[in-house]
Amino acid sequence: MENFKADIAIIGAGGAGLRAAIAAAQRDPALKIALISKVYPMRSHTVAAEGGAAGVIGKDDSLDNHFRDTVSGGDWLCDQDVVEFFVEQTTRELIGLEHWGCPWSRLPSGEVCVRKFGGMTVPRTWFAADKSGFHILHTLYQTSTQFANIRRFDEHFVIDLIEADGRIQGLVAFDLQNGVFRTILAKAVIMATGGAAQVYSFTTNATIVTGDGMAHAYRHGVPLRDMEFVQYHPTGLPGCGLLITEAARGEGGILVNKDGYRYLQDYGLGPETPVGEPQNRTMELGPRDRLSQAFWHEQKKGRTIETPLGHVVHLDLRHLGKSRLDERLPQICDLARSYAGVDPAAAPIPVRPVVHYTMGGIETDIHTATRKPGLYAAGECASVGLHGANRLGSNSLAEILVFGHVAGDEASKFAASVPDFNDAVLGDIANAIVAGISQKFESSAGSADDSIAAIRREMGDSMEENVGIYREEAGIRRAIDKLRELKQRYRDLKLHDTTGRVFSFELTHLLELGYMLDVAECMAHSALNRRESRGSHQRLEADCCQRDDKMFLKHSLAFMGDNGPTIQYSDVSITTYPPAKRAYGAEEKQLQQQGANV
Amino acid sequence: MNPKIIKFSVMRYRPETDDKPHFEDFEVPFIHESSILDGLNYIRDNLAPDLSYRSSCRMAVCGSCSMMINGVPKLACKTFIRDYVKAGIITLEPLENFPIERDLVVDISDMIEKIESVKPYIVPANDLPDDKPNHQTPQQLEKYRQFAQCINCGCCYAACPQYKLHPEFIGPAALTLMYRYNHDNRDGAAQKRIASESREFGVWGCTSVGHCTNVCPKLADPAAAVQLDKQDSAFDYVKHFLSRRKKD
Questions:
Q1: Residue A100 is nearest to which of B121, B131, B135, comparing CB atoms?
Q2: Average pLDDT score, chain B
Q3: Is A151 an active-site residue?
Q4: Co-location of B49 and B121 in the same domain
Q5: Phi and psi dihedrals of B35, rounded to 5?
Q6: pLDDT for the residue numbered B248
Q7: Which candidate among A83, A485, A492, B93 keeps its CA 20 to 30 Å from the CA of A269?
């Protein structure tokens, strides 16, 4: 087995991982940084983000606006100290990317242009057409190549973390290209592995988004926090689930049901705004949770459109005109044409809600440190406390920059504070991990009775059916029972190909499935125990269909137990914005009026 | 919707056991929306669990699933089975001009090294404070925007006759990226990049066949970028020539 010794190891080379690597490299050119990813950096799922990244820049905007939008958008489950820090840092990060060459869309004057986004009071979303994630990721990747002290391990799949003396001190990875295992010792490890939306069968996410880092941290005693909060994006293409960006509505797109009616006005988001004149925090620019819930109700009322690929509503962009669509939304026009057979300049796009984002993740403090010394986490895999019960669009691309940077700094500091590796002890731990995983290649070949694909499909379908936009106890329990059965079957799964190790995606898909089953259990158990409705977690039962601050203004913590997760709770940090009614559109204005009159 | 059936003929190769690659045929059901990648997923999930191919985003932006589809380099996720009904068969091979690793997976490390060799990052032209963005007008952005669309999928290397003959050639994607940074008004290192690539297997390695642009799934037009690189290189030569003469 080949070994590498690093000061810090970063798992995941998407936006958060690359930003962390650059921060650490800039901080100290002598620092040895190992950047490990199961794919090449530019394949990471950051690449698929479309709409943009939030950062206060306009004269009509303020940090307090961004803070309040984020906290109310998260239905008060955000840690407000974290949100304060985040809104202060994000614009500087976006300017940093600008200096590194990110092709942000511009005003004729040459200044950076911002666009409207859901749940935001003022336009503050920086964008690069509708390929913002692609340009951010490539800018970070290309920028990272100038640092000689970043050593990349591309296409290395992490098997387990190495823990000794109560600290995380490295990892064991499977080098796909060479079919061998490698030990990477590190004085600090940063998880930057992205989300876990692939536990659902219908998702916008890339097939690599399987919650790997979440499962690793969980198995090493770090709780996964707020896992019941899974975001359904309201506008995905039917069938494939590909994302049609919220920017389509920010630019003025409207949503209509089968009668051509702008149904969002029936769900506390009205009044109806004139077509082509989108208004912040109103109608189509409401937050994602509310829009997806409105679709659910429309479907129940029989007002959605039935297609061979499921029920849809129409996202109508025709009034924007071809040249505006080509300038601002070229990618989604291409996607709609290719994958739905619709030219958005000529016809409305069929869309439906689709799983998009995990608000929860590895519990960290404001400095991205987990409760396990030596382990840090940033980006979608982490729960730093930013998004609460519902993330606002364009806060996640900003998050990976702000907290990727923090993680790079903090892990570097920690690495400088710990003693040298005990090679013998760590070597033994690594060997034990490799021996365990090698058994997969040594046991008899798998039978046709069961398969990775079958278990994965049943897991995804059960989560979709029972832990979806609306949940209730009976359904969640069905999902929990199903997951228990699948975990049992998972233990008996064997590889079909026990000879070929080079690029054995069969092995990595098998391990990913194990990670996903753990994460799915955390989601289901956290959802079962939260007997209230908040943000993206909506319960159908009469006694828990309202927000209950008395009982549940708390973070859920899922710890690994002997028989699935055990759920505990922790406090939410409230600084300056006490919990209030979450309102949009006319209702918000009315409440503000009343507040002013008091 | 009743799915129709089409034949996939997929190249298989496992380095541990196979002397050379061979083809394996599969019957694949499909509907109007099915991509080639959907077909491969069907094969892996139902017929050949050990089939290896790269894929991730499913929306033609991550660049993972490039392969030869009936002899042409394409992204499997953005190529649709419906367009091959007439052909009656879909033949999948690993991306040409790259060493095969296993099944449809190739070794792309040579291309990645070349892409990273052109200093693909801004060397600041001016020293701005951390809180002040550069000015860049939409016209200035337009000078390089198209050439910043490359997803590093490698289709252009698979199509490039020069890369096939001379693997030392730096290749279309790297030269496109070089042009992208050279013509960004925020950058100040164009001279250096041009000087280091004004060589036989740098910009002058290209024989202007243009297949790279024909196969580029993102319309980044690498052929145009390389021709413009050559222009830059020629100007640079003349400039140096004249400045030397002045000194003489």
A1: B121
A2: 95
A3: no
A4: no
A5: -90, 170
A6: 58
A7: A83
CATH number of the domain at B16, please: 3.10.20.30
Compute CA distances A261 → A250, A274, A278, whole Å: 19, 13, 16
Q: What are phi and psi of A43, to 5 degrees?
A: -90, -10
Q: Which residue has the tokens 């990317």?
A: A97
Q: Are A264 and A397 in contact (CB under 8 A)?
A: no
Residue A592, Cβ neighbours under 10 Å: how many?
11
Domain range holding B133?
109-247
* Nearest CA among A201, A147, A197 for reference residue A10: A147
Q: Are B219 and B168 found together in one domain?
A: yes
Residue B56 buriedness (CB in 10 A; 0-12 / 13-18 / 19+): buried
ipTM here = 0.97
3-state helix, strand, coil in chain B (%, to 5): 40, 15, 45
Map out the domains of chain A with their CATH numbers.
Answer: 233-354 (3.90.700.10), 444-547 (1.20.58.100)
Residue A552: how many other CB atoms lie within 10 Å: 21
Tokens 């309201």 map to which residue?
Answer: A234
In whole angstroms, give the CA distance from residue A156 to residue A161. Answer: 14
Residues of chain A in contact with residue B119, where contact means CB-CB under 8 angstroms, are 146
Which tokens in the block code for residue B125? 């032209």
Higher pLDDT pick, A391 / B241: A391
What's the CA gap between B18 and A216, in Å, rounded? 35
Query: Diameter of chain B by CA atoms?
Result: 80
- A469: which DSSP letter? S
A551 C-beta neighbours (distance < 10 Å), count: 12
User: Is B121 close to A146, i.e. CB distance below 8 A?
Assistant: yes
B179: CATH: 1.10.1060.10
Number of domains in chain B: 2
- B112 lies within 8 A of chain A by CB: yes
pLDDT of B240 reads: 83
Same structural domain for residues B233 and B184? yes
On whether any CB of chain A is under 8 Å from the CB of B80, the answer is yes
Which residues contact residue A379 at a Cβ distance below 8 angstroms, ignoring those fewer than 6 apart?
A12, A14, A15, A16, A17, A192, A193, A194, A399, A400, A403, A404
pLDDT at residue A2 tops 80: no
| Chain B residues lying within 8 Å of A309, measured CB to CB | 33
Chain B residues touching A98 at Cβ < 8 A: 133-134
For residues B119 and A544, what is the distance between their CA atoms, to the nearest angstrom? 57
Residue ending a domain, choose from B60, B75, B106:
B106
Q: Give the mean model confidence (pLDDT) for residues B28-44.
A: 97
pTM: 0.97
From B150, which residue of chain A is nearest by alpha-carbon distance? A138
Q: What is the pLDDT of residue A188?
A: 98
How far is it, in rounded angstroms, from Cα B49 to Cα A74?
Answer: 41
B38 & B91 share domain: yes
Place of tokens 């050279």: B182
Looking at the fold, whether B99 and B149 belong to one and the same domain comes out as no
Q: DSSP class of residue B27?
A: E
Rounded to 10 degrees, the C-alpha dihedral B42/A463/A207/A55 comes to 150
CA distance linking residue A271 with residue A335, whole number of Å:
31
- Residue from B34, B121, B153 whose CB has the most chain A CBs within 10 Å, to mutate: B121
Q: Are residues B171 and B190 in the same domain?
A: yes
Whether residue B71 is found in the same domain as residue B165 = no
Q: Report how far residue A13's alpha carbon sits from residue A145's, in angstroms, rounded to the nearest whole number.
A: 12
Chain B neighbors of A142, CB-CB under 8 A: 120-121, 177
- DSSP secondary structure letter of residue B143: T
Say if residue A271 is preceded by a cis peptide, omega within 30 of 0: yes
